[in-house]
Amino acid sequence: MTPSPLTAPDSVPASGDRRRHPAPAHLVFFHGPMDCGKSTLALQVDHNQSRQGRHGVLLTQGDRSGSPQISSRVGLRRAAVELDAGTDVRLLVRDRWAAGHRVDYLIVDEAQFLTGAQVEQLAELVDEFHVDVYAFGLTTDFRTRLFPGTQRLFELADDVQRVQVEVLCWCGLRGLLNARVVGGEMVREGATVVVADTAPAPEAAAAADGEGADAVRYQVLCRRHYSRGQLGPMPTGPGQLALR
Ligand SMILES: Nc1ncnc2c1ncn2[C@@H]1O[C@H](COP(=O)(O)OP(=O)(O)O)[C@@H](O)[C@H]1O
Ligand SMILES: Cc1cn([C@H]2C[C@H](O)[C@@H](COP(=O)(O)O)O2)c(=O)[nH]c1=O
């Protein structure tokens, strides 16, 4: 683990003062495939925490909306601080403290994109500065491998929970794996990070006769249909299936 740039807890404002908060802080990781409600849950946790008078900071990286926010497909969205691989999360929190703000908890969406070092920084904020961290992210990438951030969260989190809302494969079985679809075809090679949605591009859905050659989307599949590469009927909108 990297050495800490932060000073002793007595420089931390009230929220980081262990004597006022005897209960230990926690690093909790909620994970699942795309579309299982992770961002919705992130906003719900934030809502419930802030209702208790606690002060949180929302963090994300590469939200589908293209904006620095946590956005849920249910329709909720909230502004968030955009991270990149070079962000030291401890310094980000220290700057809040320096500006006189309390930081009781962090909500981290798209946590699969964190580096291992950033997960370690989050763990330090929990252990040394009593900041609760709630992280939300994908379990596996389009090749069925753990993302690096996810792996480190599995290794370090106090509590790891699979999000309970089931995403269904087109066959009706629980979908666990994220297929990447480019131009209508499932691909198994490419960059690990390609930000895109599960919905087909609107123009493809309208035409219902294929997808643009460069259009990228993701589709959640059960293990059998992932390994067979079978995408099933093409989704054209809520409750509609068109034959491919
Ligand atoms: N119109 C809708 N009505 C109710 N629930 C919806 C609607 N649209 C999306 N959802 C729910 O939102 C879920 C996706 O939530 P979201 O937080 O965006 O997922 P994730 O962050 O895991 O990708 C879907 O699985 C579905 O349960
Ligand atoms: C599987 C997979 C996904 N991504 C991207 C696609 C989306 O922008 C996000 C996940 O968003 P969600 O809130 O969970 O729906 O991750 C990626 O870059 N690489 C992948 O392999």
UniProtKB/TrEMBL annotation:
Q: Which GO terms describe its biological process?
A: DNA biosynthetic process; thymidine metabolic process
Positions annotated as active site in the UniProt record: E110 (proton acceptor)
- The superkingdom of the source organism is Bacteria
Q: What is the lineage of its organism?
A: Bacteria, Bacillati, Actinomycetota, Actinomycetes, Geodermatophilales
Q: Which UniProt keywords apply?
A: ATP-binding, DNA synthesis, Kinase, Nucleotide-binding, Transferase
Mind naming one GO cellular-component term on file for this protein?
cytosol
The entry sums up its family as follows: Belongs to the thymidine kinase family.
InterPro entries membership:
P-loop_NTPase (IPR027417), Thymidine_kinase (IPR001267)
What is the name listed in the Swiss-Prot or TrEMBL entry for this protein? Thymidine kinase
* Gene Ontology molecular function terms on file: ATP binding; thymidine kinase activity
Question: Where does the record place the region Disordered?
Answer: 1-20
The UniProt record lists the keyword Protease: no
Name the top EC class. transferase
- Which organism encodes this protein? Modestobacter versicolor
Q: What reaction is this protein's catalytic activity?
A: thymidine + ATP = dTMP + ADP + H(+)
Q: Which NCBIfam families match?
A: PRK04296.1-2 (NF003297)
EC numbers for this chain: 2.7.1.21
